[in-house]
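Quick one:
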Amino acid sequence: MPQITKDTLIIIPARGGSKGLPGKNIKTLRGKPLICYTIDAAREVAEDIDICVSTDDCEIKNVVENYGLKVPFLRPTELATDTADAYSVILHALRYYEGYGVNYEQIILLQPTSPFRNGKHIKEANDLYSNDIDMVVSVKETKSNPYYLLFEENEKGYLEKSKKGDFTRRQDCPRVWEYNGAIYIINVESLLKMKMNQFSKIIKYEMDDLSSVDIDDEMDFQLAVTLFK
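Output:
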């Protein structure tokens, strides 16, 4: 049963090229292509008409359409490179739908490499969203705390803590979060004014380590296989 309002477009960006794990977006995991886990999660909260797989790859398009979801377009070549960013991909999708008279006020960006993120997570993150902020983003608490474990090299070549603080135990440090890549809920009005890395009004949605697994290379993939078992 859809739980997301009709002014929301879910975008699943799935580029064909991947250096870390070739063909990862459609690599079979526990009997079905990886991207299909994200399609399932999107379908838990939205109708197919409001779910857009943005891809440049005909093979990905075929896999998705064989799974029953229409792919509305193939991305142009300039948005299929290593340097193409999420900002440009989102704007391209928005303009496509605007051409058909459909204007969305909110974007939910779901990377296809997070197989343990589900509809419940999306719904909970969406409940945190309001139109006076720029973005809700999913995070996990980082184990590499910059007050304690992370260092930078100074101009003399010596290591210094990335974040200044006089802490002798990691558990005493302030909590720090990292984006886990699973969910981005974006205000379209904000996006049309600035890029995502310029957003200042950002709310976190915290996820656990299991739900945060993001597949980038073969080791990540084998971890997901093991976790499913």
